[in-house]
Hints:
The structure holds 2 protein chains of 2 kinds. Chain A starts with 19 loop residues before the first strand and ends in a 15-residue tail after the last strand. Chain A is an alpha/beta fold. The radius of gyration of chain A is 22 Å and the shape is globular. A 7-stranded mixed sheet of chain A has the order 13-14-15-12-11-17-18, sandwiched between helices. A 6-stranded mixed sheet of chain A has the order 8-7-6-9-10-20, with helices on both faces. A 3-stranded mixed sheet of chain A has the order 1-5-4, with no helix packed on it. In chain A, helix 3 (97-108) crosses helix 4 (112-133). In chain A, helix 8 (236-246) links the parallel strand 9 (229-233) and strand 10. Chain A has helices at residues 57-76, 79-95, 97-108, 112-133, 161-174, 189-201, 215-223, 236-246, 271-283, 303-314, 335-350, 382-385, 401-409, 424-433, and strands at residues 20-21, 23-25, 28-30, 37-41, 48-53, 151-155, 178-182, 208-210, 229-233, 252-256, 262-265, 295-299, 354-356, 372-375, 392-398, 413-414, 416-420, 438-441, 456-457, 460-461. Chain B has a 5-stranded parallel sheet with strand order 7-6-5-8-9, sandwiched between helices. Chain B has a 3-stranded antiparallel sheet with strand order 3-4-10. A two-stranded antiparallel ribbon of chain B has the order 1-2. The termini of chain B are far apart. The radius of gyration of chain B is 21 Å and the shape is globular. Classes of the chains: A alpha/beta, B alpha/beta. Chains A and B meet through helix 2, helix 4, helix 13 and helix 14 of A and helix 2 and helix 4 of B. Chain A: Keywords: Oxidoreductase. Chain A: InterPro entries: Ald_DH/histidinol_DH (IPR016161), Ald_DH_C (IPR016163), Ald_DH_CS_CYS (IPR016160), Ald_DH_N (IPR016162), Aldehyde_DH_dom (IPR015590).
Amino acid sequence: MSFTYAPAPESRSVVDIAPSYGLFIDGEFTEATGGKVFKTVSPSSEEVLSEVAHGSAEDVDRAVKAARKAFEKWSALPGSERAKYLFRIARIIQERSRELAVLETLDNGKPIKETRDADLPLVAAHFFYYAGWADKLDHAGYGANPRPLGVAGQVIPWNFPLLMLAWKIAPALATGNTVVLKPAETTPLSALFFADICRQAGLPKGVVNIVTGDGTTGAALVAHEGVNKVAFTGSTAVGKAIARTVAGSDKKLTLELGGKGANIVFDDAPIDQAVEGIVQGIFFNQGQVCCAGSRLLVQESIQDELLDSLKRRLSTLRLGDPLDKNTDIGAINSAEQLARITELADSGEAEGAERWAPACELPSAGYWFAPTLFTNVTQAHRIAREEIFGPVLSVLSFRTPDEAVAKANNSQYGLSAGIWTEKGSRMLAVASKLRAGVVWANTFNKFDPTSPFGGFKESGFGREGGRHGLEAYLDV
Amino acid sequence: MSERLTVFKTYKLFVGGKFPRSESGRVYEVTDSKGNWLANAPQSSRKDARDAVVAARKAVGGWSGATAYNRGQVLYRVAEMLEGRKDQFVREVADAEGLSKAKAAAVVDAAIDRWVWYAGWTDKIGQITGSTNPVAGPFFNVSATEPTGVVAVLAPQESSFLGLVSVIAPAIATGNTVVVVASEKAPLPALSLGEVLATSDVPGGVVNILSGRTAEMAPTLASHQDVNAIDLAGADAEFAKELEIAAADNLKRVLRPRPADWTADPGTERMTAFLETRTVWHPTGSLGAGGSSY
């Protein structure tokens, strides 16, 4: 017996997207030098949503100068006054969260239930949390009266556009820095709406500058001499390039890069909860998550039982219109990303792994990839080593906890890991041996502004979130 | 044309989210700094104090169990509500403390900002008071703070509003609930604050405000077996000693009075005074000798 759901689309009418947007520099929207623009499309339909200014090196220079000018006054404000600006921003985000959720879903392709229930609440909470730090920096453990760095150049990815903006801008402003932020090329809109929130909050001009563009814009920003701090979230390859760019300068650098998280399931784990955690770990946001649990390490004795349950569960996932409130799997963010996922998944088959996906009809327009899992994966396979950044799970097995740890750590990355076991001492023993910045036990993909996040090894350095997240923006 | 006759407010207590009169039916005359009549405030009895403790105790579970983030939102909401009713408090503070309008406005501004300061502390105090402890053995060992429970607060006598906020906000920021005895001669800003709290998403019973004779209520609160801590800000040295002795009966946490500049940076003392530290041990097991080499 099968049953179907009636469509339950969220209304688009709560968001009003302008046909074009300029760069937000010194409190004003301005055209890019030379008037160059690019289009941003909705990944689920390929509909053009808006035309956005393509910032050049000259535009970056203007923005950095505006941020520099604003820095003097902003950093001299009492922390309690900076706090109140950030609290205002947090509140306005809460007020406008439905609008921003719909906007983010349109521009990114992720399901509305995620933008509504995860992205937006976390964005507001992040500003709220760091607002509170602005006048408490003396208590943060970095000595008395820690100073800001100056102008922060920040480059963020497309997978959580507004959340990554919050992770970057909230601590930077709380500590007294000013920012020039470059959103991802494929998801510029929520950052531009954020510019309007800064206006509503009465934020002084030049404290936040948004320069849209592509990789060349970002490269110009991180290389700019007037930037004192570079914060980047994105691929490990670009992170390495940025590390080379800032080498020999005084720029403080934090990098939040790729991952190949191991989700380890022991034989005493509650299977149903583990299955939900595995699904959450790799199919949340279509797997386009740097800390995704993209490698499932399952204890051999329960492998068949777990895979049966997992496949049954995957068959119930609903893929389609991201604005539909019942949708579990939305669109892949771009044609380019879809091509990368497709290529890597094909390599899995070519290298001998066994591919499985539930029966799943893909929409004709837009960029889609069915939830997929691979069994018979070895540690040498590309799908076990490279970050796919898509809804593709590679399953490996182990016999002993030692073997699980060895396999989990066998990666250039070290961002996240998961452990599923009812035994507390085993959980803690394994957690303490995992070379990963975040370890979730009997849960996965949990985020909170109070909790530091970041990677070991080639997953980057520095932490975002929590008290630790202040360090990246302080001269300490 | 004759001038319009104003409507006076009946000032009432704030207990369990409601606005009762004193069960004793008593009131006392409150005057401004020049001796002009302002209002008849409830003169709470010892029974009112005990009722307030019951209300505060009832609210402990919900408030201490709320997430720190949620408590921060609520405290920030208090600041928002106060900002909108600033004029009223400026008037009341000016009357109560004999301040010029400008000086009273500065006091009220500082009080609003103090709510904001503590709103930001709710989810951070645990991050600076807790720790992971590297014990010499295979154990996961974590210390975390939690609220002590019901705190009786004798509000400062001189600073009727900024001082009041400065003793209430830190106690509730961390998840305690409070029974507050307002400044005896200037209780009106405190009683009006109850009206703000009632419309700020603060759950009923988290803050309970009593007006009346400090000397009458304080011994009841100091010796009450269901009160966990007492802030003696509003007691003089001699009275404070007497109350501290009474408080020893169930080993209440006591915050002694000391000369205070309520306009200064408050620090964390008024929060940590009403926190308990709990340390949890759990074996980490072993996967074999040594740490990771990678």
